[in-house]
Each structure stands twice: as C-alpha cells, then as structure tokens.
Amino acid sequence: HRDQVVVLMYHGVLPDDEHLAEGDWLQVRASEFRAQMAFLAEHYEVCRIKDVLAPPIAPPARPRALVTFDDGYANNLHVALPILREYTTPASIFLVTGHVDTRRLFWWDRLHLACLNGAPPEAEQVRALKARSPRDIKAAVDAYLAAKQLEAPETAPEAYRVLSRGEITALADSGLIEFGSHTHGHEILENLSKAEASATLEISAERLIRWGLTAGHFAAPNGDYTDGQIELIQQAGYTTCFGTRPGIWNAPQEPYCIPRMGIGRGTNIDQFALLVSGFSHWLRRESAYPE
Prior knowledge:
Elements: E1 5-10, E2 12-14, E3 27-29, H1 30-43, E4 45-46, E5 64-71, H2 75-86, E6 91-95, H3 107-114, H4 123-130, H5 134-147, H6 165-173, E7 177-181, H7 194-210, E8 217-219, H8 227-235, E9 240-242, E10 261-262, H9 269-277, H10 279-287
Parallel strand pairs: 1-5, 1-10, 2-3, 4-5, 5-6, 6-7, 8-9
C-alpha cells in the first residue's frame, strides 16, 4: 500500500515493570513500543501529518506511516519520547486540553486502578459507560465501584497523569512531536448536542493556540462522530479528523474520516507487522462476507 498511509493509534507507554490491571490495553510496554518503532524504522517511512496531506510528487520508496497518541499522558514524554528519539520517529499527540496541568484521572483509568488486582469490568459495562453523557459518567463509575466494593484514587498517580504545560513545551522542543486536539474534556461527540460539540471543539482549539501550538488536527474520542458534526469540526478550524475505525488511509483523500490501527498492550511484533501491512484488516474484511 505504498500509495496509502497506515496511521497507528497509541495512548500511553509505560516501563515493563509497571504493575498494570489485566484489562488496561491502552498502556503499551516500553519493550513492545521499542520493537515496534524499530520495525517501522526498518520498513516504513514515518511521516508528519503535513507530509501526507498532499499527493507525493513521486511514488514513495517505502510504505508510509504516521504515529499518533491520544489523550496526552505524561508518559508520552518520559517513556515514549526517548524511544522515538532512538529512531528519529516523528509523532502526533492529541491532547485532552481540559486535563492539562491537572492530576485528574480519566474515568477508565479509575476503573483500571480499582481493578489492579482483580477482574476488569466487562466490555458491555464499559460500552454502557461510554454511551452516557459526560455529566453522568463520573456518577455511574462511582456507582459501579461502590457496587463492586472497589476503591480508586481521585487523582492520577504518576504513571497515569496527563502532561503539564512545561512538559508539552519539552515535547514540542524535541522537534519530533506535533500536537492536535482530542476535545477539551474527552467528550464523545456523538453523545453531545450541537452546542456542546461546538463548545468542546472550539475551547480545545483556543487552548492549543494560546499555548503556542497549532490547532489544525483533531482526533475524535472513541472515534464516534456523525457526518453532521464534520461541519462543526471544520468550523472550529481543524483540517483533519482521525477516527478509530481500522483501515489504511488513502491519503490525502477524505481528511475528515481518517482510519487508524489501534496498538495496545500485548501486541507482539508478528501481530504488529500484520496490522501495519493492512493484511489483518483485509482478512477481517474478507471474512465478513458469506462464502
């Protein structure tokens, strides 16, 4: 797929000895991430977003890839960046701007930390929480924890906290990292009214600009947004929208419906190679059709 671009979606990277809950797929082990970045460096041309928004002048010599991170965990600086530097790999981080300079935990991390030594919540329970309005999620998580007699911190431990402004500056100064928006409060756009969706998109863009960053790129939390909300994304000044639907991007076509391959904890290098090649996605797509 040399005429296409594979976009990888990460969240966090933590040391191999960090104790993680069984269901915490979002935090990749450092050794896994290093092996994956080494594979990309050997086989792919890892680009910046701007590099793939225009058709290539000549056919690329190697397949192209983008590395992206959602949420803005501080471990993107302290664990991921040194590995990215080893391979001179650029990456984009989509910030939840309302969590910057706070120690507020994301609601799913509260669940993970509460379940460190026990069974993770059922997938159906997590989906039900995602479907709630932002105003209701905290109360629903509190109720779940109380029903299961579990305890979780209200403030983020070091491994799970979000970047500070100073850390964002350090990442920008590395020359490898660019930033975009992941909304202001990690709201799932599909669950919002038009006014609420516009507000979180515009506030997040304004914060990025105030911090001396550009606000051209957006990644939708959970990948859920409607066709009608694409206009709101455009009106807020974003020139791209990244989702979570797996697939290979026919860049620069459909810049507001960009698919991404999610990479989580436990992805070994053989699985990673299949994902970035697009073969595993093709296989799933083909198997969806009756014989």
